[in-house]
Design goal:
Layout: E1 8-9, E2 38-39, H1 44-50, H2 54-60, H3 69-74, H4 77-98, H5 104-114, H6 117-126, H7 153-169, H8 173-186, H9 188-206, H10 210-213, E3 255-262, E4 266-273, E5 276-283, H11 286-302, E6 348-349, H12 354-359
Parallel strand pairs: 5-6
Antiparallel strand pairs: 1-2, 3-4, 4-5
Amino acid sequence: MTSSPPSQIHPSERLEVPARLEWAPSDWAFDATKLPPLPAIRDPALAEQARMSKDYAGWRDGRQSNYSRADEIASYRRLEWLGDSQLSALVSSELFMRYPDMGSAVLSKIRSFLTSNHTYSYLARAYSLDLALLQPPPPKKPGKFWRSLSETQNVAADLFEAHIGALLVEGRDNCVRDWLRTFLVLNRDELDRRISEHEAFLQAADEMPQRFKKKRALNALVFDGGSEVDPITNKRRISLLDGCPASPHLEDTPARFDDRLDHAAGWHSHLVIDGYTIGCGRGQKQIQAHDAAVFTYFRLMRGGLTIPSVASSQPRPASSTPPPARNSNEPHPPAKRSRCASFGSPPRVDTPSPRAVRRL
C-alpha cells in the first residue's frame, strides 16, 4: 500500500546556510515562523520532473556527458521557466492591488527583492526542496572544489521556481496565489520597512538641486561642450579641450595628406599643415598610412614641436638680381627628396594577409 503524497510542505529551520557553501545573502529578511506551508505537487510524475536535474536524466540513460535536448525537456528546466515568469506576474499583480499609492519605481524595487534568485534559493532551503533533488551520484574521488548540485544557490532557486511551475501545470493557480497572499500578509512588517526605505531614498533624490539631476543626452553624433560618447564603452569621455570646437579650425589652418604610392609598402603619406610637413607614415592601405602620419605628428608634439604660422611669417624679400639663366644643355637639377629621415623611420601599420588570418 502506497501512501498518498502530502498536501502541504511545511517550512523548516534550514534558513541558515553553511559558510562553506558561500551563498550570497538573501534579498529578504526571512523568518521561518512567517512562511506559510507550500502546496505540494499531487501528480507523482510531475513531482519527479520538478526535482530532476538534466545531469540525472542523462545519467539515468547511461550518459555521463553530451546531454541531449531530451534530457533538458525531461528535467525541471521547462517547469522552472514557467514558474519564474508566472511568479513575477503574480507578484506584480498583488503589489499593484495592495499599494495603489505607490509609484512604479517603488513597486519595481520591491518586486525585485521578492523575485530574485537569492530569495528563491532561501525559500527552497526553507521548504527542503534542495534535499529532494535527483542528481547523479558523487564522483569516487571528488576534487577539492567539487560541490553537489543541491548545494548550488542557482539550482536551489530553480527548484523553487520549478515547484511553482508544476503547480501551475496542474491548474492550481489559486493555490499559488493564496500562498503568495499569505506570505505578503505574514511579512507585512518587512514589506513596509522596505517600502519606507526606498521612499525616503526617492524623496531625498527629489530634494537635490536641479543642477545635479540634469541628465545629459547620450547622442553619439553630437559633440557637446568638448565631450563625446565613446562608441565602444557608450560612456562619455573626459575632455581636456578648452572649448569645442577647439581652435584652430581646419578652415583657418587647412590640413591635408600628400599621398604617394610606395611599391614596397603600399602607400607613403605626409601630413601637411600650413605648408609644413609634420607627419610621415606608410601602410598597405591609404587610411593606415594616414594614421601612421598622425601618430608621427603626436610623437613630435610630445617632443616640443611648434608649428609657425604661415600668416604671421614674414614674406621673403624680392631678389634684386634675376636668377641666372640655365643653359638648355645642362641637365635638370635632381628633385629634392622628402626629409623623412628627419622624423625618424616612418611608422608602418601592416595588416595580416588573408592566408595568415586563416592560419590563426
